[in-house]
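To illustrate the input format used throughout this study, we show a single complete record. The first block contains the structure-token representation of the backbone; no residue identities are included at this stage. The design step must infer an amino acid for every position from geometry alone.
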């Protein structure tokens, strides 16, 4: 503390040694560079650096460590709690590492860590392939994969992390981890035969905890077309029947079909994708749901990349502020749990409030890859997410929006009411206030993950509010 009792400003060393494009306070574009997709959180980093290559990343990590400046890693900028940036530190944004290389003979693809899910789907689709990703196109593929990664191809092809074969990652530990021979940061290649424990950790617990991932190699799957079905019930009055039928059929239907539910205060929407099948086959699989009331049904046969693009909402049309809670469900909800969903959505404080689910089952329980995975929820029937979106991008800051405390409290209460019926959480949708977050995400695996952390980042250079801890705790 200073003599006046105030913390002095952080002194940042010379930034001229940072490689790549560097944006700092006062520069044109700084406000855009420091802002993430979720405007609920806004930090003021000392600098944002955009490396153009893996050696640039190595230099940026070394600079931060030598300068004693905390760092964060940012890909697509969708860290929902704002943890991919920070105040008075260095943000390493890998968005310019956006190459895509596809080996059609080997059925593999290597992508830079800055590639978005939409860009990956489009590039793979042009070559006649697909890989499981999340549904939101602007999310970084690397970030989605390193936390698990699931969407509308998951029951057919497994988690994104199950299809991860190799990773290039910049670690800070030095020569003992196979990095820089001078004890500084260095890039290593990780696969099932090299640094296998690290690969296993990266498959489900890899976001920002062990180093800076710069490239990822995936197994990809031939997929020429899909059949998609969108079913809309214009009233939530049929929720009890729709939800119960969905949860008892969606995780057990043909592995090629994956479906999601999005429930708002005004409607219930089911989105389903059948990999390598036709519309009539998809409709037959969904017959138990289609028999409920008289929903509106839209079907299409199209290439997966085209179908995926159709799911996207222009970023400017999305709410500015978001709050979510993640939950996994391993036993069907009883009627009283479904009644909780109906009750909370009936009193939702904003149009952007919803309850989202994604069916599991299919190949997921058996798809753990060679070398293993840290993803801990293979036995789930479905993933679930109470969430709220509010505010206009470019409008009133979240701190001044009267809906902010109301929406946050609504999501917290909604999640708490469902907690007795759920089991576990998803690190890509972090539960920031959870006391047992580490075991919620990774179960008893946390001790094994901490051992990997100590081996590759013993100085805890890559840390944030819920990074894998050096030592497991209760």
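Output of the design step:
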């Amino acid at each position: 503390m200073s003599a006046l009792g105030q913390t002095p400003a952080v002194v940042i060393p010379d930034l001229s040694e940072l490689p790549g494009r560097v944006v700092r306070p006062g520069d044109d574009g700084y406000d855009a560079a420091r802002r993430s997709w979720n405007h609920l959180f806004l930090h003021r980093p000392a600098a944002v650096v955009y490396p153009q290559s893996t050696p640039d990343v190595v230099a940026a990590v070394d600079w931060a460590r030598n300068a004693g400046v905390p760092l964060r890693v940012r890909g697509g900028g969708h860290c929902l709690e704002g943890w991919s940036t920070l105040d008075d530190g260095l943000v390493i944004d890998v968005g310019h590492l956006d190459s895509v290389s596809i080996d059609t003979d080997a059925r593999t693809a290597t992508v830079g860590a800055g590639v978005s899910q939409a860009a990956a789907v489009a590039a793979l689709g042009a070559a006649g392939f697909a890989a499981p990703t999340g549904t939101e196109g602007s999310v970084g593929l690397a970030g989605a994969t390193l936390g698990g990664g699931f969407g509308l191809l998951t029951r057919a092809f497994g988690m994104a992390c199950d299809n991860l074969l190799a990773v290039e990652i910049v670690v800070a530990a030095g020569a003992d981890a196979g990095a820089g021979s001078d004890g500084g940061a260095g890039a290593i290649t990780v696969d099932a035969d090299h640094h296998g424990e690290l690969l296993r950790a990266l498959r489900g617990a890899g976001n920002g905890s062990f180093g800076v991932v710069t490239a990822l190699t995936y197994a990809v799957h031939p997929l020429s077309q899909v059949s998609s079905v969108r079913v809309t019930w214009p009233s939530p009055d049929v929720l009890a029947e729709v939800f119960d039928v969905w949860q008892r059929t969606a995780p057990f239907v043909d592995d090629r079909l994956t479906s999601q539910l999005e429930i708002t205060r005004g409607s219930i929407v089911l989105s389903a994708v059948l990999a390598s099948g036709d519309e009539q086959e998809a409709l037959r699989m969904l017959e138990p749901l289609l028999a409920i009331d008289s929903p509106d049904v839209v079907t299409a046969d199209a290439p997966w990349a085209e179908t995926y693009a159709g799911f996207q909402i222009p970023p400017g049309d999305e709410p500015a502020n978001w709050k979510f809670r993640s939950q996994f469900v391993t036993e069907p909800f009883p009627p009283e749990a479904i009644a909780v969903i109906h009750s909370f959505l009936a009193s939702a404080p904003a149009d952007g409030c919803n309850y989202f689910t994604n069916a599991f089952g299919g190949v997921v329980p058996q798809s753990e890859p060679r070398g293993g995975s840290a993803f801990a929820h293979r036995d789930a029937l479905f993933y679930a997410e109470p969430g709220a979106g509010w505010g206009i991008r470019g409008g009133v800051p979240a701190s001044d929006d009267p809906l902010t405390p109301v929406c946050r409290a609504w999501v917290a209460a909604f999640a708490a009411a469902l907690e007795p019926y759920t089991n576990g959480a998803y690190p890509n949708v972090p539960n920031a206030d959870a006391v047992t977050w580490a075991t919620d995400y990774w179960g008893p695996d946390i001790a094994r993950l901490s051992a990997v952390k100590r081996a590759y980042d013993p100085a805890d250079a890559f840390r944030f509010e819920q990074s894998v801890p050096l030592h497991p705790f209760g």
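Structural context for interpreting the output: Residues 11 and 88 are 9 Å apart (CA to CA). The first strand starts at residue 21 and ends at 23.
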